[in-house]
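Entry: Aryl-alcohol dehydrogenase-like predicted oxidoreductase
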Amino acid sequence: MRRRRLGATEFEITPIGLGCMQFAGPGLVEGFYPAIGQETVTAIVGAALAGGVNWFDTAEMYGKGASERALTTGLRAHGVKPGEVMIATKWTPTLRTAASIGHTVGDRLAALQGFPIDLHQIHQPVGSLSGIPRQVEAMARLCREGRITAVGVSNFSARQMRTAAVVLAAHGLTLASNQVQISLLHRDVERDGTLRTARELGVTLIAYSPLRSGLLTGKFHENPELVRKLPRVRRLMGGFSPAGLKRTAPLVAELNAIGKAYGVSAGQVALAWLTGFYGDTVVAIPGASKPRHVEESAAVLDLELTERELDRLAGLSPARS
């Protein structure tokens, strides 16, 4: 599958990247995924590189720099040099002013251990003590200073995206991306104007939770007992209730049927739908806690569904997430 341009930047990225939240280590993320050690992180990063993945998404919030350090440690272990892959990270706005963006960029660069911030994102549109325009102004300043290359946002609405784009345009810059939840079980971007606005502005949508926390892999439908082993927060947020499994069963059955025809898994078909149905506007960042997870995700780069298959899956997708 050919690479896609990230917004109007010069970065050409694979439709599948690697989300690095699982690299956070002990702490908040353990409420969703078990902590993994550096040896496993390095193996996961190696599997991503071997599969052709050329970009990685991390964040300050993921272990207060632990994910950033684990990622770049893994990259260096595989001989990757700064500039050879694209790295996206995020600033945490909670109870901070916009000035924090400039004050903490040095911490982000230190955690990335010599790798540049190719894409710096505002992690969420709420929680800051400063408004969105001031936050975006601070990001633009870092671009002018050459400390970051491109500006992105996360979880922004269509209106908030427009606000960010206007502020950046005043500095001769463009909004590169908006990271939002998108999957066959979460298609709000089609209804709330986010997809339409992204296309109008030339913004790339980065889809997180593209497999809805694993629900679209089908393994929990095949063996519902596995649900009990999941962290409670992940069960509640992912739709792993008996009713949720029943509601999504027809869709998962079709994912399995299409996967059987291609010799791939249901999860791989779900990712191929995501990177195919929306055209070049959407890229995805599935996470991985084991090398085989990213091996499966990377293999989707060679999988292209037919228009008929894309539409059939869309038709089976629940009307509301």
